[in-house]
């Protein structure tokens, strides 16, 4: 699954595969960019420490003591997806004492340990501020270098092999790929602000999904973005893990940043700064004209892809999952049926619909498909649109919700359909046996592709008394050209 669905794809992973996570909706703990970076980087490294020390409690099926497989956490840090001409490769290193930082087209190595000691948040803020204050300009070809990770994979693989396999380019690329993670210090201000909060949320989401197409390093397991006004977010590469695993990391990071590490009255990180810290190291590059030409070509491809994404993010506060539960309907089923209704009203028909279900009840489980466009959901939508009797519509809604819940349980417990068909397809290719049925089934487009990411996987927030600490969650790009 990992190889054929993610690593063998030759199209850009930006938008097509990578996904994003967002900051708090209503709260920004500090407006100082360097300070927010200091606490965020510290929180992420504390999470890595928990993984390394095996102190991280396994996630469980909500409301039960049944644990979920935690294998996806193993490659969360110190990992990258390297391009190849036929297939990409996931590389993971046991440890890394630095992070890679991008600011205004320049790349830096930032040491986050000193003689085995994790730097304090204030020390990391101090080091980040040095990068922000650095007046140097990008070297030729450096500013848009990240576009290579945003374009098609084969050109990037060829350029990497020819121009980044030795010398200064290899040393600098190694610093990025072997870093604990990637950090972008963005010059823009994002979040729900100003006279057009909804429009700004759209821009915020697109910034995290693709940015300028060259100011993120899309190959890294995840890239953290710290905006000028203190807002944060992340972009995650998809092959090594699915969104709930990254959401767990991000929830821990936000909670640790805001409620445990905290800030002083001036918005700075807490802690002292030792004077003997290694300064951030500016990475050097020798970018030839041939490489610059490929950078420009990759940027054209990436920008066309980014410009083709329509994204709308909005907070919905009319009612929440609590109200739905009081009606004795699954919130997930309610949302999925609502999406069927919305799609029907928009397109005048139904389409093949994908909802991801996790299969982490099994060792190294990833996902299974819930085909949420069912006969029952279609019957409800048609009855509602035909203005059938209220009681009839309610009855059909409950039947559709029950059907959806059953489909989800089957997928979650290994009785789904799509991964079985996928396995048969892989075996048929290996044996050289053509199967028109499998070829047709697996080529059908998912014009409506959906996913739910759990919130509050850990009891770190009191959202009842402090609803302002709700996060915007995250999202991903369309998986079909007309989806």
From TrEMBL:
It comes from the Eukaryota. GO terms for biological process: carnitine metabolic process; fatty acid metabolic process; long-chain fatty acid transport. It catalyses: (R)-carnitine + hexadecanoyl-CoA = O-hexadecanoyl-(R)-carnitine + CoA. It holds the Pfam family Carn_acyltransf. The active site is at residue 238. PROSITE patterns: ACYLTRANSF_C_2. Pathway: Lipid metabolism; fatty acid beta-oxidation. Belongs to the carnitine/choline acetyltransferase family. This is carnitine O-palmitoyltransferase. It comes from Acanthogobius hasta (javeline goby).
């Amino acid at each position: 699954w990992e190889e054929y669905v993610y690593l063998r794809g030759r199209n850009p992973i930006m938008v097509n595969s990578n996904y994003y996570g967002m900051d708090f909706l209503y709260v920004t703990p500090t407006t100082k960019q360097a300070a927010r970076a200091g606490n965020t980087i510290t929180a992420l490294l504390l999470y890595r420490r928990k993984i390394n020390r095996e102190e991280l409690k396994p996630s469980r099926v909500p409301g039960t003591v049944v644990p979920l497989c935690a294998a996806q956490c193993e490659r969360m840090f110190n990992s990258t997806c390297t391009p190849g001409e036929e297939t990409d490769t996931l590389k993971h290193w046991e440890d890394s004492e630095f992070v890679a930082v991008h600011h205004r087209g320049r790349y830096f190595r930032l040491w986050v340990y000193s003689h085995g000691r994790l730097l304090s948040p204030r020390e990391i803020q101090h080091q980040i501020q040095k990068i922000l204050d650095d007046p140097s300009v990008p070297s030729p070809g450096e500013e848009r270098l990240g576009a290579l990770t945003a374009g098609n994979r084969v050109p990037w693989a060829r350029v990497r092999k020819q121009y980044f396999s030795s010398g200064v380019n290899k040393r600098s690329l190694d610093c990025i790929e072997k870093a604990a993670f990637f950090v972008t210090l963005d010059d823009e201000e994002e979040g729900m602000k100003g006279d057009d909060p909804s429009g700004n949320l759209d821009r915020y989401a697109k910034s995290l999904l693709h940015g300028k197409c060259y100011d993120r390093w899309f190959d890294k397991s995840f890239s953290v973005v710290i905006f000028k006004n203190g807002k944060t977010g992340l972009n995650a590469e998809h092959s090594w893990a699915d969104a709930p695993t990254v959401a767990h990391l991000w929830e821990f990071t936000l909670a640790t940043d805001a409620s445990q590490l905290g800030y002083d009255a001036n918005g700075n990180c807490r802690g002292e700064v030792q004077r003997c810290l290694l300064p951030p190291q500016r990475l050097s590059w020798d970018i030839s004209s041939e490489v610059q030409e490929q950078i420009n070509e990759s940027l054209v491809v990436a920008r066309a892809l980014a410009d083709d994404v329509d994204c709308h993010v909005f907070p919905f506060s009319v009612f929440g999952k609590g109200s739905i539960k009081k009606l004795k309907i699954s919130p997930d089923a309610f949302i999925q049926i609502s999406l069927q209704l919305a799609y029907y009203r928009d397109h005048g028909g139904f389409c093949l619909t994908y909802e991801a279900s996790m299969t982490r009840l099994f060792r190294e489980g990833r996902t299974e498909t819930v085909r949420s466009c069912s006969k029952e959901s279609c019957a409800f939508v048609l009855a509602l649109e035909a203005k059938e009797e209220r009681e009839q519509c309610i009855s059909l809604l409950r039947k559709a919700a029950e059907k959806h819940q059953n489909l989800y349980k089957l997928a979650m417990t290994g009785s789904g359909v799509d991964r079985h068909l996928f396995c048969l397809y892989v075996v048929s290719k290996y044996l050289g046996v053509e199967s028109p049925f499998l070829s047709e089934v697996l080529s059908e487009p998912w014009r409506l592709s959906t996913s739910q990411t759990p919130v509050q996987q850990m009891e770190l927030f009191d959202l009842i008394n402090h609803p302002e600490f709700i996060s915007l969650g995250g999202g991903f790009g369309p998986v079909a050209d007309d989806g």
